[in-house]
Write a structure and sequence with these properties.
The chain has 374 residues and is α/β, with parallel strands linked by helices. Helix content is 37%, strand content 16%. It folds into two domains: 2-249, Type I PLP-dependent aspartate aminotransferase-like (Major domain) (Aspartate Aminotransferase, domain 2); 252-373, Alpha-Beta Complex (Aspartate Aminotransferase, domain 1), CATH 3.90.1150. It has helices at residues 11-21, 30-42, 54-64, 82-89, 108-114, 134-143, 195-205, 239-249, 252-270, 301-310, 326-329, 339-347, 359-373, and strands at 2-3, 47-51, 72-75, 93-96, 119-125, 147-151, 159-160, 163-164, 171-175, 188-192, 209-210, 227-228, 276-277, 285-286, 292-296, 313-314, 348-351. It has a seven-stranded mixed beta sheet with strand order 2-10-9-6-5-3-4. It has a three-stranded antiparallel beta sheet with strand order 8-7-14, with no helix packed on it. The model has no long low-confidence stretch (mean pLDDT 98).
């Protein structure tokens, strides 16, 4: 069986984790600090706060941005549900904006049509590893006093107009799930350009604990003292996970290079095949391809999907439009709201994409797919 995604774990990764298990710190120790520093450097030199998952990162980011009841968060339906649900959990109204027909990235024109003076955050998603159009989205956010959030679960290691992912939006969230561009097992991070937002994110993920004496409401206690000014959660990542992440970061460039090679091999073989449509890449974006989303035309997606799986190629579909999910549909969101996203969903199949995929594996996928659509 050939999976659509898989982690790549080396002996160095194993040794890095083992060293932590033999040491004094399993969590909240120096490996966490080192990993956060390295992620921040990768993301343009901004502060990074690690956490237990990409979903936790989204929850932390929205909380750090002050999202709450009465606010609106504009986002894309072509994403995993957490991009929207983490805003809804905090009491915000989620407003879905349609995607560009070719890239499946949130369409700035659609965003501009739905923002209001209640818009708190515009949350883009770097679908498949291709950065969204942040230079178009930021002025829209600025015009209504909102912030931009980049859900970069797919795109860490990529660039947009020469700038690294993490330096594109006001706040960026990352995921380190095993199938992502690097892994900590489970894990994620928030990168914030504004140090004050980064500090709020940190405190939220650390149960709301404040340790700065200058901010204490009560003074005169000993060095053990801390305060909690706002509710938070324990979303802290462990030193064990961060040791794995630090080791993985050393191979991120190699991971990205191999994903680019696989994408090029798919593109070359599939670009001229009738009944298929290959992914779009903007000239100013250097993606860190997390997915290879091929589109199957003519209403044959399910037939082709089932055929690939029957052949032992465990393809996936990314994603079911979020507003179709019962939790949103039952709240009044209607099918037909975002026609480009819905059509993309009807056609999309994610082909196998991970660094350890061999050229022979890729050729097997290509051969099987082209026979199925012939």
């Amino acid at each position: 069986m050939l999976p659509y995604g898989r982690q790549s774990i080396s002996d160095d990764d194993i040794e890095a984790v083992t060293a932590i298990l033999r040491g004094d710190w399993l969590t909240t120790g120096p490996a966490v600090t080192a990993f956060e520093t390295a992620v921040g450097e990768l993301a343009g030199g901004h502060r990074a706060v690690s956490c237990t998952s990409g979903t936790a990162a989204l929850h932390m980011a929205y909380a750090g941005l002050g999202v709450g009841p009465g606010d609106e968060v504009v986002t894309t339906p072509m994403t995993f549900v957490a991009t929207a649900s983490c805003a809804a959990i905090l009491g915000a109204k989620v407003v879905f904006a349609d995607v560009e027909e070719d890239t499946a990235l949130i369409d700035p024109a659609a965003v501009e049509a739905v923002v209001t003076d209640r818009t708190k955050v515009i949350a883009a998603v770097d679908y498949a590893g291709h950065a969204a159009d942040y230079d178009a989205l930021q002025p829209i956010a600025d015009s209504v006093g909102a912030k931009t959030l980049g859900d970069a679960a797919h795109s860490v290691g990529g660039t947009y107009k020469g700038r690294p992912v993490g330096d594109l939006a006001d706040v960026t969230t990352l995921s380190f799930f095993p199938t992502k561009n690097l892994t900590t097992g489970e894990g994620g991070a928030v990168v914030a350009k504004d140090p004050a937002i980064a500090q709020r994110v940190h405190e939220f993920h650390h149960i709301g604990v404040v340790r700065d004496p200058e901010r204490f409401e009560h003074t005169g206690e000993g060095s053990w003292y801390y305060e909690v000014h706002e509710h938070g959660l324990n979303y802290r990542l462990t030193d064990i996970a961060c040791a794995l992440g630090l080791s993985q970061l050393k191979r991120l460039d190699a991971f990205k290079k191999r994903r680019t090679e696989i994408t090029a091999r798919y593109n070359e073989a599939l670009a001229g095949v009738d009944g298929l449509r290959t992914p779009t890449q903007r000239d100013h974006v250097d993606p860190a391809w997390h997915l290879y989303p091929v589109r199957v035309l003519g209403g044959r997606r399910r037939e082709v999907f089932d055929g690939l799986r029957a052949a032992g190629i465990l393809v996936q579909v990314n994603y079911i439009p979020v507003h179709w999910q019962p939790v949103f549909a039952n709240a009044g969101y209607q099918r037909g709201l975002c026609p480009n996203a819905e059509q993309f969903y009807r056609e999309e199949i994610s082909l196998p994409m991970f660094p350890d995929l061999t050229d022979a594996d890729v050729d097997r996928v290509i051969e099987t797919l082209t026979k199925l659509v012939a």
